[in-house]
């Protein structure tokens, strides 16, 4: 018998074994996420009990007992109230939303001319989608069309008065159309203007720095309602006789300036987070101030403050509902206005309208939030090798 002193070396790789059944699957997720400890178990049971108590009545009111079709308030009233529903049944009046959907989207824009805002919205969506795709080609041409060409075309198309189009006063605009226009214009203006304000606040030139600080602190120190009220009511009092500005234009300017002040502070936070070595490295390459800012500093700063930028955009989108204070009707305002229609006066009309408006706002805000997370992951290259 011979004894070998050579160590055993495996010549083939052993096949991978499947993970234990207790470490994978839905059961494993439940044990680790919801029932990992006694405290987690108690909280999970309480949460499930609350959901079981709250969700069925809400679903029943929103969908099961809801009225989906009808031509007037009778469809959403019970028999004792003079309606068609059996007594005791109460549900959302989606027939009201269906009947008023055109006004909720376009306001009092003439029905025969609604193809114009529809065309603008479709064009906007077609141009926006490629801008949201990081690797889409022709980004510069697309941005030029979306942010420069489209606003001018949309202005003349929506207002009319040229090329044989009937003129539609901005007083007739309303609904989701106004919300989207105010939001898009405010976002388009506030980001570049906020960048300039942030750079000006960090400037070494005393006059520029003082003016930027004054603008930011004054605007941030007053509520948006005050800005809109001043732009709509007070500003015409300071203009020469015969001078006037459209109320919608004044609202656009007020919303944009207000958002720019908050955007400036978000951008300034990103600029302050850039290490000093980045500035010194740019100086060592012989770059001037604007080259250093455009090529080195701003790209890094904007990447760091994507959550803050999108948060400002979301706040701006929701703040557009405040234009009702100056007699304009965005989505929320037009929903509130239509609740006074006697043909649809029911106990559930107001709640249904507000739920619809809230859902629309949530869809847009949630979409911006998810895209923000996508861009954060896409641009998270700081630690890649």
Automatic annotation (TrEMBL):
InterPro entries: AA_ABC_transptr_permease_3TM, ArtM/GltK/GlnP/TcyL/YhdX-like, MetI-like, MetI-like_sf. The chain crosses the membrane at residues 41-63, 115-133, 145-166, 172-199, 211-236, 321-338, 344-367. It comes from the Bacteria. One of its GO terms (molecular function) is transmembrane transporter activity. SUPFAM superfamilies: MetI-like. GO terms for biological process: amino acid transport. GO terms for cellular component: ATP-binding cassette (ABC) transporter complex. It is found in: Cell inner membrane; Cell membrane. The keyword rRNA-binding does not apply. Keywords: Cell membrane, Membrane, Transmembrane, Transmembrane helix, Transport. Its main location: membrane. The keyword Transport applies. Residues 176-365 form the ABC transmembrane type-1 domain. It is a multi-pass membrane protein. Belongs to the binding-protein-dependent transport system permease family. HisMQ subfamily. This is Amino-acid transporter subunit membrane component of ABC superfamily. It comes from Agrobacterium deltaense Zutra 3/1. The lineage of its organism: Bacteria, Pseudomonadati, Pseudomonadota, Alphaproteobacteria, Hyphomicrobiales.
